[in-house]
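Recall the central idea of this unit: under ordinary conditions, the amino acid sequence of a chain determines the structure it adopts. In this exercise we apply that idea directly, starting from the sequence alone.
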Amino acid sequence: MKVADIKELVEGRVVNNKVCLENIGEIKHAFASDLMSDVLRLKCENTLLITGLCNVQTIRTVEMAEIKLIVFARGKKVDENMLELAEENDICIIETDFSVYKVCGLLYQNGISPVY
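Accordingly, the structure predicted from this sequence is:
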């Protein structure tokens, strides 16, 4: 699934359009967690992270896990430091007001596979 399709599905807002348009390919898997130590264990290509944990450490964790798309749920908003770090590392960010549970369900219904 393309970033634009995910954005529409979760009624979200792409925070850094340039990164998303230039660097993100097809997304096939999703993982939801607020526990970043679990994210670090992932080894799955074309994966997005769904989380409500909105801070710089989330961006750093995603960078280490080589994930290129984050969906911040529950109305969480990215600050300037997070945005700058994400853009430096070609990480696309979508913000949505939906819960993590709802985002997971919508993505699953529309063909995104779970990591586990």
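The mean pLDDT is 94.
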